[in-house]
């Protein structure tokens, strides 16, 4: 494996009985990269991360992390990985400091030896170091879990939906912490169902139904959207969605908050034609504006093409 490649997956498949969680996926993560797996619940993200951390064995394909095979070299692998699972899994009856010292001891190190590595994160919760972990808020639990994942100075950090269930401010703070960690040279892979977090990654893989639909930089994914995108609003938003989906030139139409995002199969269609169509159906206060696609727009577009709902 190239020294610039940190993680390499080749034709990875994972099944649970007759259910395929990961379907012949391949990807590479560069050393020192902040790489995101973006997709909804059930897309296969957690299964993939458990394979990477050697907690599961693939049913097909090969997976290497820092040149180590995740099946054959799992004991060596666990020494260089930091893992933060999606569900808070620290000891809730231990204090903040006791949890951190416990995890440091597992890797034969100490909090003092690696304090510089975790201080930017741990400093937020250090004033509460005698508080039981189970009594922490969601954001504080998140910071403690990240500190415990980092305390042994891992080369690769694996974070499975770390911001799920925390408030918006804690989410922003967490991503700022990840950006600082990336600057220190640690390879970080993170999964999230929040499409807006994709823009904070160097590259992202859009994953759905156990398949990777696209791997690229967030900017490149947005630039590859390939169609004009319109945001529409009217008094009856539900009926607006139904009627837009019946419009003969509609490629996709999806609700986004108080708007419908519309892409068309015919680029020659003008906003005035859409407005006339809607007004003829009795819609009032119709507003149409051209917008730039988000990662979520791109994801929905790819899902539509993959399911055969779009038409050329």
Concise synopsis of the structure shown:
By secondary structure, this protein is of the alpha/beta class.
Question: What report would you give on this structure?
Answer:
The structure is a single chain. Strands 6-7-8-3-9-10 form a 6-stranded mixed β-sheet, sandwiched between helices. It folds into 2 domains: 5-220, Rossmann fold; 226-292, Alpha-Beta Plaits. It is built from 10 helices and 14 strands. It has helices spanning 45-52, 74-80, 96-106, 115-122, 138-150, 168-183, 218-223, 237-246, 271-280, 295-307; strands at residues 5-16, 19-30, 34-38, 60-65, 68-69, 81-84, 156-160, 187-192, 203-208, 211-216, 229-233, 250-256, 259-264, 287-291. Helices cover 33% and strands 28% of the residues.
Per-chain topology:
Layout: E1 5-16, E2 19-30, E3 34-38, H1 45-52, E4 60-65, E5 68-69, H2 74-80, E6 81-84, H3 96-106, H4 115-122, H5 138-150, E7 156-160, H6 168-183, E8 187-192, E9 203-208, E10 211-216, H7 218-223, E11 229-233, H8 237-246, E12 250-256, E13 259-264, H9 271-280, E14 287-291, H10 295-307
Parallel strand pairs: 3-8, 3-9, 6-7, 7-8
Antiparallel strand pairs: 1-2, 1-4, 4-5, 9-10, 11-13, 11-14, 12-13
Helix pairs in contact: 3-5, 4-5
């Amino acid at each position: 494996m190239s020294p610039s490649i940190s993680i390499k997956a080749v034709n990875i498949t994972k099944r649970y009985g007759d259910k395929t969680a990961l379907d012949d996926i391949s990807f590479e993560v560069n050393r020192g990269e902040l790489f995101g797996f973006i997709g909804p619940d059930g897309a296969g993200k957690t299964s993939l991360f458990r394979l990477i951390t050697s907690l599961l064995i693939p049913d097909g394909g090969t997976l290497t992390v820092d040149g180590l095979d995740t099946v054959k070299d799992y004991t060596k692998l666990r020494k260089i990985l930091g893992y933060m699972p999606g569900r808070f899994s620290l000891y809730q009856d231990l204090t903040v400091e006791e949890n951190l010292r416990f995890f440091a001891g597992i890797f034969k190190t100490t909090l003092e030896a690696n304090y510089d590595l975790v201080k930017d994160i741990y400093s937020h919760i250090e004033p509460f170091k005698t508080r039981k972990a189970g009594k922490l808020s969601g954001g504080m639990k998140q910071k403690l879990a990240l500190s415990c994942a980092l305390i042994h100075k891992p080369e690769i950090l694996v974070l499975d939906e770390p911001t799920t269930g925390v408030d918006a401010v804690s989410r922003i703070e967490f991503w700022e912490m990840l950006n600082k960690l990336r600057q220190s040279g640690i390879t970080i892979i993170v999964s999230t169902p929040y499409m807006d977090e994709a823009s904070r990654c160097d590259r992202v893989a859009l994953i759905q139904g156990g398949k990777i639909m696209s791997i690229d930089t967030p900017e490149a994914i947005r630039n590859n959207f390939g169609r004009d995108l319109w945001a529409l609003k009217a008094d009856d938003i539900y009926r607006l969605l139904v009627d837009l989906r019946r419009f003969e030139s509609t490629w996709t139409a999806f609700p986004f908050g108080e708007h419908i995002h519309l892409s068309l199969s015919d680029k020659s269609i003008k906003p005035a034609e859409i407005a006339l169509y809607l007004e003829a159906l009795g819609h009032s206060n119709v507003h149409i504006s051209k917008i730039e696609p988000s990662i979520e727009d791109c994801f929905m577009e790819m899902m539509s093409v993959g399911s055969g709902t779009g038409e050329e």
